[in-house]
Amino acid sequence: MFDPILWAKGLAALALFASAGWLLSLPLRNVSIVDSLWSLMFLLAATIYLTGQAEPGPRAWLVTTLVALWAIRLAAYITWRNHGHGEDFRYQKIRERNDPGFAFKSLYLVFGLQAALAWVISLPLLAAVESSAPLGWLDAAGVALWLVGMVFEAGGDWQLARFKRDPANRGKVLDSGLWRYTRHPNYFGDFCVWWGFFLIALSAGGWWSVIGPLLMSFLLLKVSGVALLEKDIGERRPDYQAYIRRTNAFFPAPPRAP
What we know:
This protein is mainly α. It folds into 2 domains: 1-132, no CATH class; 134-258, no CATH class. The chain has helices spanning 4-28, 33-51, 58-82, 89-98, 102-121, 123-130, 137-165, 185-203, 211-223, 226-229, 233-236, 240-246. The protein is globular and about 55 Å long.
């Protein structure tokens, strides 16, 4: 089942949320706050879908709980990580390319775009929340994949934060723990989380929501994730080239011989 009216309500809520974030960014002159809002957009969408059900079923409560755990942890971590550091260099470059007038342009170039992406990616949440069918083995598989994703995402973030706290590691490359098996365990974790949501949606018959995890995977691999971060990291960290040669970019695998 697909309810276009409820999906449209999700878009309206996300647009209002993104607009509020944009207004907050203006006095701060920092659009990086959108990174903290990104995961919360999905929690907002899931909540809108949940409140649109007369009698939410067990799948609706399950997926909303999983989204809440993922979204709140990620938003809290990014807010903590970015606190006191000003606008991220990625957004500084966007600002430079779009001045004059970036203050207004950021409404649609940054906040509006992310709200639109979140709206499309949230399709598995809509499919899962609308279902009143009993839980099955695909739901269990989805939860298991979500757990794998949370281990990689939260574990990778924690290991990187601990590594950066040590001044002796300045300029060095983290290649231990989860980072020994993939250069981007946090992005791989996000990938697993969203394919886990899709399995839960698929259990509800929401095969059509596959566009959500496909779009998220494309963003993680080709746009704002791996491709963007590794665009010039070799210039800033010479040891990274050796790290690339022995470690998979995304999917975990044993390191290769140097």
